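To: structure desk
From: M.T.
Subject: fold request, one chain
Message: Could you run this one when you get a chance? Sequence is below, nothing fancy, just the single chain.
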Amino acid sequence: MASFRFPFSFTEANAVEVKGEVELEQPLPFSNRQGGGLYRTGKIHVPDCPALDVVLYHSQATAHFMYVRDCPVDSHLLDIVGLPREETVRLSGRMRLPGQLCLGSERTELIGHALKDIVGAPPLSPAIARCSQNNIAVFPIAREGLKYQVAEALHADHGYLCDEIVLDAHHVFDSSVPVYNRKVELTVFKDKDLDQAEKEKISMAFIADSISSGLVMREVVERIKERFDHVREVEVVSPLATIRGLTRVARLKCTRDTHIRVHVFETLLNALPPDYYYSAHFDVPELHLRPDLEKEYRQWWGQDAKGAHLADQACAGYGWSEVFYSPRKQIQMINGQLQSRHGMTVADVVRRNLG
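Reply: Done. Structure tokens follow.
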């Protein structure tokens, strides 16, 4: 069957229009610890730039992360969501919740399972096996990337004990930056454990972080290339990744001598205005490895009183770091968006699904 092509366009800084195309091949099956999954290779095409390779993955763990999962009724979780105990004390059995409400340590456990699936899948496993453990370094970006457990997945699947180099790269407000009003500040680069000879052995870099605007990822790739100039393969593990952000990665100058590939859970996301930080699923079945799961996800979120679909308005990329570190902050962030866009709260949506 022919590949699927999805054209896109958006306005960048200084009113520059960026046009491109997502190209996705047909899904292929692979085996994992949970019985099986799917992967799908593809490319982000932007004029005058090398195509950026992407791989989408579906497994039980990635689906629970991105769509809707079946879980026990949990009074502690429902308390954080905003349902009072007197309302939930009589509930028993199981409930359906979306990935945004998989919080804290539970989310960390889930993403660990997902990373083991990805590292053992056909797109990555042969590339890893071509290297020794001394040729690979893992660069988790604080805070979110620290929770991904990439080094642990490499050990679980290949037995490798790779160097792990923590980075702290984050957005800071800067009103002089058009559109985004923020720039990237890189304050920590923990590579002092490696001497120059050890750095020169590193040919493959794993970077762990999600991609919203792409500003942080662009800065991190450039800094890694400066300090580890023998790196020729960059594998970006990015569970949540927007098309807008991926175009910025595609336009990196160093892609001409370094192969960059981005590994994403299930589907690519739509960065939403006005600040492009929150991101939603595209309502395009062909962009999803499992369109049936996307349909279920949209039904769970439902519509507001005016008939607008909540899943179209910032339902995927809530709490890129907060969801791991501060469950209550995650709910506050979702409530802020739901109330401003739809006049609803998380508790309202959970309540109608429990009913």
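Reply (cont.): The CA atoms of residues 126 and 168 lie 30 Å apart. Let me know if you need anything else for the meeting.
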